[in-house]
Amino acid sequence: MRFLGIGDAADLSALYLRLAEEGHDVKVCISHPLCQDTLAGLIERVADWQSELAWVRAAGEDGCILFENVGAGRGDTQDRLRREGYNVIGSSAYGARLENDRGYAQRVLAELGLPTAALFEFSDATEAARFVDRRPARYVLKANGPEAATFVGRDSAGRDVGALLASGTPVGQSFVLMDFLEGVEMGVGAYFNGEDFLEPACLDWEHKRFFPGDLGELTGEMGTVVTYSRSKSFFDRTLALMRPLLKQHGYCGYINLNTIVNERGIWPLEFTCRFGYPGYAILDPLQRTSWSDLLRSMLNRSRNRFDAEPGFCVGIVVTTPPFPYSREHVAEPVGQPVLFAGDLTAAERRNLHYGEVRLKNGVLVTSGASGYTLVVTGTGPTIEAARDAANALVQKVVVANARYRCDIGQRLIDGEFARVEGWGLLDPR
Predict the structure, then answer these.
(1) pLDDT tens across 75-88, in order?
(2) CATH superfamily, with its number, for domain 184-422
(3) 365-385: per-residue pLDDT in tens?
(4) CATH classification of 2-98, choosing from 3.40.50, 1.10.10, 2.60.40, 1.25.40?
(5) Fewer CB atoms near the end CB (10 Å): N or C, the chain?
């Protein structure tokens, strides 16, 4: 097959490399100026993706365009390319609205019968600060848009959120305040082929804070626990309800719904309407079906299931400075060697998923804008076994100033997973 990847920073690096390992032709267009060297020496990079459309078209049904994100009008672009007859996997204009317009997404979910937290929409920080004064409560502030910032308040009267709003700190042109929900945060995701979901769906538990113990900045993601096991009942109660709407709007790609669960039920928070990072890489070790066969089946709608391993996978994001910031704002060098202690087995190499890296003089080195270097995974029949496998492998990674969390999954092990089971949200064993 022929795959043309389109994105800002080569967020699908691990997927491109896996497809190339399978023997497929892969080209990537990377638009961010600071990411131009990512994947150099590993994958063919092109400056203008539109000039490669004929190359994709010449492959017929074996040609596929992979979109990494929905910013800069790319949802509309994906719909247009589909109308022109190209095979496109990624998102759509509808998916972009679901992800980037939080108030709209909550209204869609409420109309489907899901319980939703109280949500208030704003475009003026001063007005929002006055609102918090009038209605004291614990809030989560979420900006709309593809670069959406999130601030989780801790004060029961909302004084921390109110102070942030009054300080002049930019919070986005439009944003929402959502009542804070106590419970366990978990997501459900699945591939949609334009007409139906491919099953099984996955369940995930993300770890967004920078430091162990859930301290520090909210990053894109520091690690995740995923499983394809015991997921159908949760999927049927949540994401599966979107089937008619996704079909109506021609969506084709991965979609995830993040939620808070507690003794009162399932409370949807937000959509990710594209491949999730690092989620897709952490799912990789559990997928028996190859990436190319999975993507092909989405395009030709030849199946509604794929083969997956039972058990769990734990992923650890290995970062280097300036993560969680960008070299646009923090001056940090790239080009640090990415090495490993001792020889790695084939199974261990299968559990390495590269991000912002390139080859330089035959050596793998860091690259890119953010310091998102690689994801290390481990699998096992239990969360503990998967965590231990991931932690053992990550210790073999030798990169200067590498930072990562070694407690991915610990909250689940300490009782959160048992609570989810106790609320009847998983399929019977």
Answers:
(1) 899 999 999 999 99
(2) ATP-grasp fold, B domain (3.30.470.20)
(3) 999 999 999 999 999 999 999
(4) 3.40.50
(5) C
